[in-house]
Amino acid sequence: LKPSYITTSFASKCADFNPILNDAWIHFVAFPYYGSISNSNPGFETDTAGWSTTTPTWIINSGATLTRDTTYYDTGMASAKLVTTGSSNLQGMAQLLNTPLTKYWGGTKYRVTARVMSPSSTINVNIQMGYDSTDRCSANVALSSSWQDIYCDWTPTIDRTTAYVAVSIFDTVATTFYVDTLTPSSLTNYYVI
Predict the structure, then answer these.
(1) Which of 77, 93, 164, 188 lies 20 to 30 A from 151 at CA?
(2) Which range (32-46, 69-83, 93-107) has the least confidence?
(3) Which H/E stretch holds residue 17?
(4) How far from 186 is each of 33, 112, 190, CA to CA, in Å?
(5) CA distance readout (Å), 56 to 105, 121, 129, 143
(6) What sign for the dihedral angle of Cα 9, 33, 49, 120?
(7) Half-sphere exposure of 1 toward its Cβ, with a 13 Å CA cutoff?
(8) Residues 108, 135: Cα–Cα separation, whole Å
């Protein structure tokens, strides 16, 4: 059940259904569930298939060059290498999520996490997840020569049927940086009876 569907009044109505046993026969267990949302090619182990450097334009600007790199990587044996031109900000890569979910529930929290680094740059890199320019999350972190996490938490304003993720340079600057292990997930509490 979607968490908002389970309320105190719902539990009371279930208990009223069987007045002899009252609420002894009903047990609600809440547990944190970090759900899996699949995205294609999160670690760039073989190639960069599934990622775009041009669309959608509400989440990235075109101009970056994306290649698979085996010199710098955090896990596995490869990462994504992004080279920006400095002609605009938010040059990077984006992907439409392949998800087993039929919906991204409004009011439910989702997270996208990635590992980022640059051997020579300390400018800000940006990560985003969302449906469109008005319903998304966005966060920045300054690059360093060590791999580090970047993430943002997105809570859709209403139920959505699609979502995108993106990593890009935040500023208008020419630079090179690396991305590995980009992972979206659900951070919501699911309930079972």
Answers:
(1) 77
(2) 32-46
(3) helix 8-17
(4) 7, 9, 10
(5) 22, 26, 12, 24
(6) positive
(7) 13
(8) 13
Q: Are 185 and 110 contacting, i.e. CB atoms less than 8 angstroms apart?
A: yes
Give the total residue count for the chain. Answer: 193
Cα–Cα distance between 74 and 176 in angstroms, integer?
Answer: 16
Copy the structure tokens of residue 46: 């073989």
* DSSP letter, residue 175: -
- Rounded distance, CA 78 to CA 47, Å? 9
Rounded to whole angstroms, the Cα distance separating 80 from 66 reads 7
How, if at all, do strands 110-117 and 148-154 pair? antiparallel
pTM comes to 0.80
Decide: helix, strand or coil at residue 65. Answer: strand
Q: Is the pLDDT of residue 7 over 60?
A: no
- Strands (DSSP E) contained in the chain are 29-32, 35-36, 65-69, 79-83, 92-96, 110-117, 124-132, 135-142, 148-154, 164-169, 176-186, 189-192
Q: What is the mean pLDDT of residues 108-118?
A: 96
